[in-house]
Amino acid sequence: MEKTGNGKCIYFLSDVHLGASVLKDNREREQKVTAWLNSIRPHCSALFLLGDIFDFWFEYKRVVPKGFVRFLATICDFTDAGIEVHFFTGNHDIWAFDYLQKECGMIVHTHDEQFVFNDKKFYIGHGDGLDPKDKGYLFIKRIFHNSFLQHCFRWLHPDAGIAFAHKWSSHSRLKDNGKIEADAYRGSDKEDIEQYCRQVLQKEYFDYFIFGHRHLPLDINLTSSSRYINTGDWINHYTYAVFDGHQISLESYSPLG
């Protein structure tokens, strides 16, 4: 996919954390995100979901986590209409295998990817595990991606496995001091994703770096022509990014009424 057409836009969304046990408004947030999806569908040429859409996701051979039917049905409306939906696994929904592809028509990415839209180069991913000095987190990430350990987890009854995963999720909370909420901007030298973008730019040029994970909407000029966009979250900010074929902007959703 290289071009946008017919005056339509590309949308980017992350960190909805549907089903988070530490949050009490999961139904309301699911309704809000589906309302947003329905509002953009007539204008959308592609949708990028940049990770942690679910607070936990694991596909057993014949079982998937309970819930999310409104959200998944809305995504199916997109793919049934021929709109590409790209799903990037995050640190909370890394165990997406083939269900979202086969049943919902999504294109699943397990790593950062590069795209070209209207001659603009995009570097897109979730945003976790980019700091090589964070040895502890990188070790845990390797464990979670280990196919043998994933197979072992499948031997747990889903009631036990999913309950354990939610407890772990509530305990670990995104590595940011146990909080689901983002802290304030830390400064260029302390923002892991921003630092990573600047390192990539030293080797290869990209017009836009689009990430999630941070839970803080950010629009940062890396150079005079290259920008880092963080899509924020749908817990406190309800923000997303949109590319109209010429420029990208960071927007917030406030439904009428």
Sketch the major β-sheet: 6 strands, mixed
Indicate the structural class: alpha/beta
Beta content: 15-25%
Order of helices and strands: EHEHEHEEEHHHHEEEEE
> Globular, elongated, flat, extended or rod-shaped: what is the shape?
globular
Overall number of strands: 11
What is the CA-CA span between the terminal residues?
36 Å
Extract low-pLDDT stretches: 173-178
User: What's the total helix number?
Assistant: 7
Q: Major sheet: order of its strands?
A: 4-3-2-1-10-11
Proportion of residues in helical segments? 25-40%
Rg for CA atoms: 18 Å
Mean pLDDT: 84
Describe the 3D structure.
The protein is α/β, with parallel strands linked by helices. It is built from seven helices and eleven strands. It has helices at residues 26-40, 69-80, 99-104, 135-144, 147-154, 158-172, 192-201; strands spanning 9-13, 44-49, 84-88, 107-109, 113-117, 120-124, 208-211, 217-221, 227-231, 239-243, 248-252. The chain has a six-stranded mixed beta sheet with strand order 4-3-2-1-10-11, covered by helices on one side. Strands 5-6-7-9-8 form a five-stranded mixed beta sheet, covered by helices on one side. Helix 1 (26-40) packs parallel to helix 2 (69-80). It is globular. The chain starts with 8 loop residues before the first strand and ends in a 5-residue tail after the last strand. The relative contact order is 0.18.
